[in-house]
Design brief:
six-stranded mixed beta sheet; 236 residues; single chain; 10% strand; Rossmann fold; binds iron/sulfur cluster
Length: 236
Amino acid sequence: MNWQDKINGLNKSAEDMTAEQIIRLCVKEFGGRLAVASGLSEEDQVIVNMIAKVSADIEVFTIDTGRLFQETLGLLAKNQKRYPLTFKVYYPDNEALEDMVRNHGINLFYESVANRRLCCGVRIVEPLKRALKDTDAWICGLRRAQSLTRKSLEIFELDEANEKIKISPLARWELKDVRRYIRKNKVDVNPLRKKGFLSIGCACCTRAVKKGEEIRAGRWWWEENKNKESGMHYSA
Ligand code: SF4
């Protein structure tokens, strides 16, 4: 069976499943070759809460780009205290980072889209490849309703860049479903949410969202392209 047949079969099985049932299916299917990527978003916090109910053996990893908000790192520290899970943190490669900053400056991302992609490549995409090295599949908190780039998201997809299966158990959820779960399960969230930060990445590349703007409008706000991604999920 090829990867696409497997993915089609998993999507069929997941059709009528809840997010928690999908996570159980993933644990059964991939066992120790499964990991969870957490950027500490509200959705990621929901996933971590569900994982803790299902299996303590699944590693949760975060990529610390070196430019995250203190509030985001504070939330990671809370998770480490609250859940009996392994939280692994990956950092950018030292040499690549030093070269980039020496050659392009510390705030290169404001200067051009190419520079911004270079920075996301060094600080996010390369560490992600290392984080996924010993896995067959990874879970993340993407939802279809988050942006245009995500509207045709399937629960199980082929992550072509990393040659893994990427799983989005919350693909069908709306923001109200996320918030309902958070309230019901007393899930911790980033305190920046109350200040209008609806999608939170690096501090230098995220601003609060204004009334009426879409959820991800505060990411790389100076770029004109509306469909922006870091390269973690789609090529930016
Ligand atoms: S979000 Fe900004 S600081 Fe973070 S990796 Fe991308 S360009 Fe660099």
